[in-house]
Task: inverse folding
């Protein structure tokens, strides 16, 4: 059984074909890179997997179950969770409260329970706070748990985005450009974090434009061009692939 599987996936927006019959499989425990020139369909693939947009044709399976057609929260509840390139945060909340909000999907608070502050609700909230603190310590943001999210540096905001995703208890994470806009030190921290997350047993797929990051971090890389999978292999195989070099020719990115 594959962790994630797309079969003959098609995504069309009006007359634009963003994904054109894509076949792709990800094994459990991998760090998989998803690269390709601008407009190749990378973000659309994440949007399809996370249920943001309905697929046009084909199928997406997560751990053997068809997820295409499910709502985003139903897919997240199965363990497939995505982050966004532009971090969405409750900026006025503390870092800790943001992570607790990420846990909301999995917490068992009922509406009346929250209103009446029943013992069960109080216990669930305490559990959610404990879990949020553990995640922040794991990520390395424990020391700023009470800082307002809006005041965080860019690198810490991106880390917080990942902490929020981890609070949903994923088995697989889709990371949209985790190192975008980061300086070298922040990138190094993020790369180390992605490895530590994988070492806990979470499968990772990431979109990233920085080829040094992709080549150094990923076990395997899938290359999209015009909505199609043009190469799939280890960093060395992808780097040596003439079709990949051709696809990147003239674009800003270079295959390092
Ligand atoms: N919601 C949408 N409505 C219309 N067209 C869209 C929509 N989303 C994506 N597209 C189109 O689908 C194609 C693939 O876009 P997508 O954003 O998935 O590419 P990408 O590989 O993520 O590119 P980039 O690296 O620039 O982020 C593009 O032609 C884009 O204009």
Result:
């Amino acid at each position: 059984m594959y962790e994630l599987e797309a079969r003959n996936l098609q995504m069309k927006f009006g007359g634009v074909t963003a994904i054109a019959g894509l076949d792709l499989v990800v094994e459990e425990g991998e760090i998989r890179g998803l690269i390709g020139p601008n407009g190749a369909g990378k973000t659309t693939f994440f949007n399809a997997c996370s249920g943001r947009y309905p697929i046009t044709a084909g199928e997406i399976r997560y751990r053997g179950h068809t997820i295409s057609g499910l709502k985003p929260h139903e897919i997240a509840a199965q363990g497939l969770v995505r982050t966004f390139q532009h971090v969405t945060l409750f900026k006025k909340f503390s870092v800790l409260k943001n992570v607790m909000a990420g846990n909301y999907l999995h917490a068992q608070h009922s509406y009346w329970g929250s209103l009446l502050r029943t013992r069960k609700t109080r216990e669930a909230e305490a559990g959610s706070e404990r879990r949020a603190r553990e995640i922040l310590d794991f990520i390395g943001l424990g020391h700023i748990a009470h800082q307002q999210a809006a005041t965080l540096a860019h690198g810490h905001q991106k880390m917080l985005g990942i902490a929020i995703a981890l609070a949903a208890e994923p088995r697989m994470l889709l990371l949209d450009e985790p190192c975008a806009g980061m300086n070298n030190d922040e990138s190094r921290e993020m790369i180390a974090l992605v490895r530590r997350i994988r070492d806990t047993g979470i499968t990772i797929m990431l979109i990233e434009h920085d080829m040094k990051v992709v080549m150094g971090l990923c076990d395997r890389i899938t290359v999209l061009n015009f909505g199609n999978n043009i190469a799939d292999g280890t960093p060395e195989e992808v780097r040596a692939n003439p079709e990949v070099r051709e696809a990147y020719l003239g674009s800003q990115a270079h295959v390092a």
Remarks:
- The CA atoms of residues 99 and 164 lie 5 Å apart.
- The first helix runs from residue 42 to 49.
